[in-house]
């Protein structure tokens, strides 16, 4: 099942936006506080809830709990996610998939806090959310602690730990996975291994605990583990919040290559990024049609007015976007550099 369309009405930073996604890689761009991560969570929480097996707990109760744990509003008050909270406010999430839909309404007042209007979505594979901070180092004991105690981490961290802990595949699927992660293991200089309740990086020169490995490499290692244990499979969905965070720029190219390979194998991908290299490389590949088998689409989140609602523009390349904060900042940096050069040249001529 692929996500085709999302409509957010009076939710989070949005008044009314409609996003039409591609089946490959969907890239979210924008300054801080423009709703990029909230958009991914608004997609992830309902899809993940319906992905789980049937339960005696009513769907509305399960979805309310999932949204509350993923967004973490005070005391689970889902009405806080509604854009306009005065009076009888409502916010809506509408997700349209290739063969099913999800429709949810959130209320700010009254006994009913959430209503499910449509729930025909049927997941075909796992849905994975990788938060900004990597989870490989925190894996040990985190799942148990999350279940027993109130932690400040939202539930995407718990879900990621559960996915990482799955057993490694065997058989033909294992061979396919190994072929996919070979470039990752070359960059890591070894293989990822779960021993007991802790992750390690196994190298030729010895074994190193995951928390002793650089954070950027741990993010890459997490991706390798999710491929090896089958969590990232054909027809699955990957949400990755700022993959470039704490990542050496030399590894950004590897991340792009992995995203392309996963998308080429049928994984639908959503990423948020502030990184020029990541976004520009994907845009160039799309512009020059270097991977015609992988659809790529860009979404620019911005506010037309300060403190106003967020609007979203979409395009097949970065050049199609009327507002691109990453490129705008690079142009400002170029102007700053040029000004310094001109001032220095003028001063030297006196």
What would your notes on this structure say?
This protein has 350 residues and is an alpha/beta fold. The chain has a domain at 3-125 and 234-348: P-loop containing nucleotide triphosphate hydrolases (Rossmann fold). The chain has helices at residues 36-51, 59-71, 142-148, 155-164, 172-188, 215-228, 249-264, 276-287, 325-348, and strands spanning 3-11, 14-20, 25-30, 90-97, 101-107, 114-119, 127-130, 190-195, 198-203, 206-209, 237-241, 268-272, 296-303, 310-315. A six-stranded mixed β-sheet has the order 7-11-12-3-13-14, sandwiched between helices. The protein has a five-stranded antiparallel β-sheet with strand order 2-1-4-5-6, with helices on one face. The protein has a three-stranded antiparallel β-sheet with strand order 8-9-10. Strand 11 (237-241), helix 7 and strand 12 form a beta-alpha-beta unit. The termini are far apart.
Distance between the termini: 68 Å
Strands, count: 14
Give the helices and strands as they follow along the chain: EEEHHEEEEHHHEEEHEHEHEEH
CATH superfamily of the domain at 3-125 and 234-348: P-loop containing nucleotide triphosphate hydrolases
Compute the gyration radius: what is it?
Answer: 21 Å
Level-1 CATH class name of the domain at 3-125 and 234-348: Alpha Beta
User: How many helix segments?
Assistant: 9
How is the main sheet built?
6 strands, mixed
Which bin fits the share of residues in helices?
Answer: 25-40%
Low-pLDDT residue intervals, each spanning 5 or more residues:
none
User: Which oligomerization state do the chains in this entry correspond to?
Assistant: single chain
What shape does the CA trace take? globular
């Amino acid at each position: 099942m692929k996500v085709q369309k999302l409509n957010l009405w009076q939710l989070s930073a949005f008044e009314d936006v409609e996003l039409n996604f591609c089946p490959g890689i969907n890239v979210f761009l924008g300054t801080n506080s423009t709703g990029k991560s909230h958009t991914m969570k608004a997609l992830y929480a309902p899809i993940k809830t319906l992905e789980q097996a049937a339960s005696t707990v009513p769907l509305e109760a399960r979805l309310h709990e999932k949204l509350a744990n993923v967004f973490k509003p005070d005391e689970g008050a889902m009405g806080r996610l509604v854009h306009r909270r005065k009076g009888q406010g409502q916010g809506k999430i509408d997700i349209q998939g290739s063969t099913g839909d999800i429709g949810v309404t959130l209320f700010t007042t009254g006994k009913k806090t959430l209503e499910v209007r449509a729930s025909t979505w049927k997941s075909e594979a796992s849905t994975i959310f990788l938060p900004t901070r990597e989870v490989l180092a925190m894996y040990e004991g985190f799942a148990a602690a999350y279940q027993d105690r109130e932690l400040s981490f939202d539930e995407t961290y718990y879900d990621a730990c559960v996915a990482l802990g799955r057993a490694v595949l065997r058989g033909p699927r294992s061979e396919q996975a190994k072929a996919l992660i070979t470039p990752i293991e070359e960059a890591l200089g070894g293989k990822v291994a779960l021993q007991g309740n802790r992750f390690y990086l196994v190298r030729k020169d010895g074994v190193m605990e995951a928390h002793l490995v650089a954070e950027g490499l741990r993010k890459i290692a997490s991706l390798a583990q999710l491929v090896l244990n089958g969590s990232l499979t054909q027809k699955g969905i990957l949400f990755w919040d700022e993959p470039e965070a704490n990542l050496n720029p030399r590894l950004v190219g590897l991340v792009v290559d992995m995203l392309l390979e996963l998308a080429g194998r049928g994984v639908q991908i959503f990423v948020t990024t502030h990184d020029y290299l990541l976004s520009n490389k994907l845009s160039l590949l799309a512009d020059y049609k270097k991977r015609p088998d992988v659809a790529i689409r860009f979404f620019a989140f911005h506010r037309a007015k300060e403190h106003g609602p967020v609007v979203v523009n979409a395009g097949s390349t970065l050049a199609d976007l009327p507002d691109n904060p990453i490129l705008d900042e690079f142009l400002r940096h170029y102007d700053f550099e040029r000004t310094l050069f001109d001032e220095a040249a003028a001063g030297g001529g006196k």
